[in-house]
Amino acid sequence: MVCRFAYVDYTILNGNIKSIKNTNIAYVMPHIITIKSSDYSIFEERDDIFINGYDKK
């Protein structure tokens, strides 16, 4: 809603769970929001938001 108000383009990539066949291993892909060439990674049920990778919160 804030991006629409400020006329800023954004894209949202919904995260999901990727399971590896024949194992009990799963990879959780976060939701990724791209605003002005910056990526914000958001995990379900977490309060942390990572900016451009997993180094900065």
Provide tags for this entry.
mainly beta; two-stranded antiparallel sheet; 1 helix
Q: Can you give the helix content as a percent range?
A: under 10%
Number of strands: 6
Which structural class do you get from the secondary structure elements? mainly beta
**How many domain units?**
1
Global Rg: 14 Å
Listing every helix as H and every strand as E from the N terminus to the C terminus, the arrangement reads HEEEEEE
Q: How far apart are the termini? A: 22 Å
Tell me, briefly, the overall form: elongated
How are the strands of the largest sheet arranged?
1-4-5-6
Please state roughly what percent of the residues sit in beta strands, choosing from under 5%, 5-15%, 15-25%, 25-35%, 35-45% or over 45%.
Answer: 35-45%
Molecular structure report:
The chain has about 55 residues and is mainly beta. The chain has one domain. About 5% of the residues lie in helices and about 45% in strands. It has one helix and six strands; from the N terminus they run H-E-E-E-E-E-E. The strands form two sheets. A four-stranded antiparallel β-sheet has the order 1-4-5-6, with no helix packed on it. A hairpin with a 2-residue loop joins strand 4 and strand 5 (about 40). The longest helix has 4 residues, at about 1-5. About 0% of the residues are buried.
Topology of helices and strands:
Layout: H1 2-5, E1 10-13, E2 16-19, E3 26-29, E4 31-35, E5 38-42, E6 49-51
